[in-house]
């Protein structure tokens, strides 16, 4: 019998209601989500269509980004110039220092495509120029430090000056090729590779200068200057003069003479820049 003065029924003993009941499996007093609802959502055609559309949109976005990156930064071409190995690097360094013993300077092709540098010592690469440039900056810092002249600003000036001269060289050569109307397969990356080989001789000259003084510097740098001059002559003449011969340009023609002068000028500029960028590092 209920108490006539009681306003509400006592529900504390009810197992299914109130705060005294058994907590639900969802935790924290909240009901657990129904697995049937999840299965129904996954089986919904609209949700499957939305997921498929999202996947296709992501794939299209990735393809668009890859195309734009390859447009401004030729990643595929750069992979070719870094396809080197230890054997190639050793032989190429020997060729840069002793180019007089090398006979065959032709670049090998396979189905109208030049083979990778690791298979052809005559192929241009960017690995040696990049590593040589970084090493040149480190050696310049070492030389400045031994003379108590090191400072981050001075080292940064050294690096920016070397990059500025390299950029000026590339622009001047491209402009000259355009004015002389030379049809060649020599690309901008090829020019950067060939012009970057001079850092190898610059490193050798500065290191020997630090060990043996100015006499050792001039001897080693002089040898490397002559070597890079011969290397550039024998390499560029196949890119510039051989193309002229294929076009039927007379050997003694005016245009062919301009191409020869251009080849000589590019080769002669390398020793001058090698001395200009290193003479102040050895005292």
From TrEMBL:
Signal peptide region: none
Ranges where the record places region Disordered: 1-33
Protein's cellular compartments: Endoplasmic reticulum membrane; Golgi apparatus membrane
Pfam family of the protein (one): YIF1
Domain of life per record: Eukaryota
Location (main, coarse): endoplasmic reticulum
Keyword Phosphoprotein annotated: no
Transmembrane segments: 126-145, 157-179, 191-212, 218-237, 258-277
Keyword hit for Transport: yes
Topology class, membrane: Multi-pass membrane protein
InterPro entries attached to this UniProt entry: Yif1_fam (IPR005578)
Biological processes per GO annotation: endoplasmic reticulum to Golgi vesicle-mediated transport; protein transport
Gly residues bias locations: 18-29
GO cellular component, one term: endoplasmic reticulum membrane
Keywords: Endoplasmic reticulum, Golgi apparatus, Membrane, Protein transport, Transmembrane, Transmembrane helix, Transport
Function comment: Has a role in transport between endoplasmic reticulum and Golgi.
Family named by the database record: Belongs to the YIF1 family.
Protein name: Protein YIF1
Natural source organism: Cricetulus griseus (Chinese hamster)
Gene behind the chain: LOC113837214
């Amino acid at each position: 019998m209920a108490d006539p003065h009681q306003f509400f029924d006592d529900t504390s003993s009810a197992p299914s209601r109130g705060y005294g009941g058994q907590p639900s499996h969802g935790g924290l007093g909240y009901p657990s989500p129904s697995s049937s609802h999840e299965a129904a959502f996954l089986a919904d055609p609209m949700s499957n269509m939305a997921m498929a559309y999202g996947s296709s949109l992501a794939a299209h976005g990735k393809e668009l980004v890859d195309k734009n990156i390859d447009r401004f930064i030729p990643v595929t071409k750069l992979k070719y110039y870094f396809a080197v190995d230890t054997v190639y690097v050793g032989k190429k360094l020997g060729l840069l220092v002793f180019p007089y013993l090398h006979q065959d300077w032709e670049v090998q092709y396979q189905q109208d495509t030049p083979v990778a540098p690791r298979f052809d010592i005559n192929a241009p690469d960017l690995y040696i120029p990049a590593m040589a440039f970084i090493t040149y900056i480190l050696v310049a810092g070492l030389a400045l430090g031994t003379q108590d002249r090191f400072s981050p600003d001075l080292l940064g000036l050294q690096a920016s000056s070397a990059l500025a001269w390299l950029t000026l060289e590339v622009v001047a050569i491209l402009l000259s090729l355009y004015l002389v109307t030379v049809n060649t397969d020599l690309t901008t990356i090829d020019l950067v590779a060939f012009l970057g080989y001079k850092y190898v001789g610059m490193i050798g000259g500065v290191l020997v200068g630090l060990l043996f003084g100015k006499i050792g510097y001039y001897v080693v740098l002089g040898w490397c200057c002559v070597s890079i001059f011969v290397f550039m002559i024998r390499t560029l003449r196949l890119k510039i003069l051989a193309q002229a011969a294929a076009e039927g340009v007379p050997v003694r023609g005016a245009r062919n003479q301009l191409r020869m002068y251009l080849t000589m000028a590019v080769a002669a500029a390398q020793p001058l820049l090698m001395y200009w960028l290193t003479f102040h590092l050895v005292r």
